[in-house]
Specification:
Blueprint lengths: L1 H30 L5 E2 L5 E2 L2 E2 L7 E3 L2 E3 L2 H7 L2 E6 L4 E6 H31 L6 H12 L2 H6 L5 E9 L3 E9 L14 H19 L8 E8 L2 E8 L4 E5 L5 H11 L3 H6 L5 E8 L3 E9 L14 H19 L8 E8 L2 E9 L2 E5 L1
Helix pairs in contact: 4-6, 7-9
Amino acid sequence: MKNLKKSWIIILAVALIFTIGAVSNVSASSIMQTVQAYQGVKIFYNGQQLTDEKQPYIINDTTYVPLRMLMENIGCDVTWDSANYRVIVTSSTQASLSAKDAQIANLENRITQLQAIIDELEDGSGADLEDIEEAIYDTFKDAGDDYFGDDNIEVSSITLNGDEDDIAYLIKLDFDNADNYDDLADLDEDDVEEFLDDVESEIYEEADGTDFEDADITGKLIDKDNSSYYVRYNGSQYTYSWGSGDDLDDIEDAICDTFEDAGDDYFDDDDLNIKISLDGDEDDVEYEVTIDFDSSDNYDDLSDVDEDDIDKFLDDLEKEIYDEIDDTDFEDAELTGTLYDNDDDDYYVECEDGDYDYSW
């Protein structure tokens, strides 16, 4: 019995030895392996060599490249998260592209806004006469101090009237509280003309880029409390009236000065001799225009003249007469008129209430 027990002990011991040996052989074969590694590998990206002193290796036919070297060369950032034992790669190129896209979008929006402003200026719709009038008043509301050394001369109003061809300004000065002057006639004419020259320049500047940029400018400066005191500008020179503004002869002189070149301006013939006269009273004012064709280059008589040109001339003439009689004793008068051929009374144009009646 003892011999049998001893035999089993020997058998178990041998079996244990063999088991330990087998496990040892498996572990050894898992840990121990042959490694073939090579240095000197060069890496190129888009024709540029990326290899530096941290050379890549080929290990068992697989190329191992330093991660930071590779990622930073293709526009990525590499950071080490030591707390979580992680390598974090982010694309800095993508962030840069997003920022550039946003910048481009902003620039495109600004270009669109600027183009809209340019289009508005080019089509002349950016201002009308009321806008220009407001800008002129803002510029010259302190003219009493700026031009005449008396800030108690008040610019009571500046108004503009006209169209794309002609603009007329009307400026009223109030001397009620003036320190140095009793009325418009007391002002120095050089100061007056400097003021009105600047008004004209400013109107041209404000009208630039609008439908009115090519308009001819005329105007009138009057004493608010005495309309017979005024200075008139016909586009080239100033005329002064100190107290005779209610006389039709003075109004007639101003009209003749304004239309002294009417033959060339309206009918493209500076050899036409045109005369204008006014007659009437506070209730009715009548104008008479005669055209002499004796020296004309282009016309034999009144019937040869284009009716549109005649209408344009008479429209402007009536408008100028109304401007001249404004703030005078004649301002409420009814206006009528006749245009004659100087050599043939049968050729005429009559005007009443703005309607023209032609007779050849």
